Amino acid sequence: MDSIVVRGGCRLSGEVEVEGAKNAALPILFAALLTDEPCVFRNVPEVVDVRTALRLLADLGADVQQEGTTVWVRAKHLRSIEAPYELVKTMRASFLVLGPLLARCGHARVSTPGGCAIGARPVDLHIKGLEQLGARVEVVHGYAEARCSGRLRGATVYLDVPSVGATEHLLMVACLAEGTTRIEQAAREPEVVDLAEVLCKMGARIRGAGEDILVVDGVERLHGVEHTIIPDRIEAGTFLIGAAMTQGDVFVRNARPEHLHALLLKLREAGADVTEDTGGVRVRGRQRLRSVDVKTMPYPGFPTDLQAQFMAAMTCAEGRAVITETIFENRFLHAVELNRLGADIKISGNAAVVQGVEKLSGAPVMATDLRASVSLVLAGLVAEGETEVSRVYHLDRGYFRLEQKLRALGADVERRGRQKG
What we know:
Structural class: alpha/beta
Radius of gyration: 21 Å
Helix content: 25-40%
Number of helices: 14
Strand content: 25-35%
Number of strands: 26
């Protein structure tokens, strides 16, 4: 099993380019199931989760081709309406094929999902929404089986929480439903907006993308599309945090400031020098960071997917920070591992109190989920000595050649095991 070894003490410096957004690419790839015409997607990140998604599409009968970051999908002749546990268990987003298969075929059977160990993340909002659109859904023996007679019917759906996955799921299905669908308390994330843009290019009629109410006028069919995936704001934020905490100087090319507003405000508050540009974002860490409180919130609030990385930065900041997690109930598993490096973190319910220390010390640590894994790598950059992060298969789900990019910025980092960066 692979691990990543980091020898601390290097400042990150230089320029790095981020990949396409994994969390945008996955639902967009599954949107190709809504049409029998060819779809071409560019800037698709070459990460494990995308490979899983392409395997799933091929397993369903779609013609899938990939050349670097360009992917061609044509779901003309689907031979299966089932997404098995073997393919869904490692990636929660796989559940999003349920609605498109249902809309195309009138019947779909998809395993309930797995993914990172960061909380229950139930799919009840997805199922409730599909039922309101006229689907009959049963969950039996770990599978959700959905049926409908003819086209689904537009309806008003209120989401109890602004779930990104449920919003994306219902958005795709509503495009082929009869009549008008109104999704209230919809997620506003840039990845949702990117999906809506793709669907509109395919012939969908959607109003309100990026707002908390989405209105979709259903159409009878969608056609093929060409689209370039937006840059990954979470990968961009990871490098920006790394620059600040190592007192480095990094320009992240393709980072979109409008997608990172909450993080950039917090980095400035912590004392980092942040420069926004049309081509990206530059962060210079001129001094030891100051402790800053953070509360994760749905977009445009501070993203939960950057909470672990920001906590790593706060471990060596001056003062005391309170980090409150409101999205996922188990997303502090990395705190225990950060404490192994000498951090002073105490957990109380959904809040972590981080007392900054003068220095961290390298030690063996273990990743528990995707974002936790990269937070431990960032902590290793400022720790004295050697930090070995094991179970980095989590990291490979969302970061492409991370160690290679860090080395190009001056970090002393290497991968040990089967794969090489």
